[in-house]
Design brief:
Elements lengths: L1 H14 L7 H10 L7 E3 L2 E6 L3 H14 L3 E8 L2 E8 L2 E11 L2 E10 L3 E2 L1 H22 L1
Antiparallel strand pairs: 1-2, 2-6, 3-4, 4-5, 5-6, 6-7
Length: 142
């Protein structure tokens, strides 16, 4: 970890203000929040694919938001894509649940702070809590 920090500092000094090349290094820290899952992070959105039917993932999303005390503000359906929006003080959550096959579903979570800044840590935590919720619901259905 220290070696990575020294490398990042060295690159920052060498580039003297060129931020664009550092973005992949900075994103690595955010992706670390997803470590241990099969989730990925792209553009501030946390994605995870579940081998579960869409309805089960949607139920898990609603249960997770409720457990985390986010208030569901709306939901819409566009073909095989479901969108849920939720709110908390100074945060807006946008969840997309997309049917890939009858038993494979892709989840995308984006959390915005003050409407424009993405909160990657909270997005990653919602995905982690979704995994927990869905594992509990799978165990209960067996």
């Amino acid at each position: 970890m220290l070696r990575a920090g020294v490398l990042l500092l060295t690159v920052a000094i060498a580039l003297q203000g060129c931020v664009a090349p550092l973005i992949p290094f900075l994103a690595m820290g955010a992706e670390g929040a997803l470590k241990g899952t099969q989730a990925t992070l792209s553009g501030g959105v946390a994605y995870r694919t579940f081998t579960l039917p869409t309805e089960q993932v949607l139920d898990g999303a609603r249960a997770t938001l409720q457990r985390m005390d986010f208030k569901v503000a709306g939901a819409e359906v566009d073909g095989d894509r479901h969108k849920i929006s939720a709110e908390a003080p100074e945060r807006t959550v946008r969840i997309t649940v997309e049917r890939i096959t009858p038993v494979v579903t892709r989840l995308g979570v984006a959390v915005y702070r003050k409407s424009i800044l993405k909160d990657v840590a909270t997005s990653a935590e919602i995905v982690a809590q979704m995994e927990r919720t869905l594992k509990v619901s799978q165990a209960a259905s067996r």
